[in-house]
Design goal:
Elements lengths: L1 H42 L9 H10 L8 H36 L3 H11 L12
Helix pairs in contact: 1-2, 1-3
Amino acid sequence: MRVEKLGSALVVLVTLVVLASFSVQGALRLAVDDLYAQAALARADEPRPIRSPIGQRLSAAFVSDLTPEDVAAFDVRTQALDHRADRLLELTAVVALAGMLVALFTGRPALEVATAREASKPLASTSSNGTV
């Protein structure tokens, strides 16, 4: 029983880590998309890309040291962040797989759970309201 509780706690912890990591990866992806849009706007590419307000705020933190006219630096920074976002997604998948394995090896078999539930059910109604 103790291993099952520890396993459940580990699964919850791993789930929270995966959700946080996936959220960070999503934020990185929004910033990268906005940086690609900024570079395209600086090159005057057609069609003109649309920048999201959230992506603008996120990407501003990553390129605060660059000038908007330096398109080559934007491309280099964008590719580096894109690469990091991909690696973070891969790491998140590995952590999620580890969580599934923890759940698999520490969980009780379904047959054992069903047997325990049946054993706890009374055979007859134990409550009565006083009528026969």
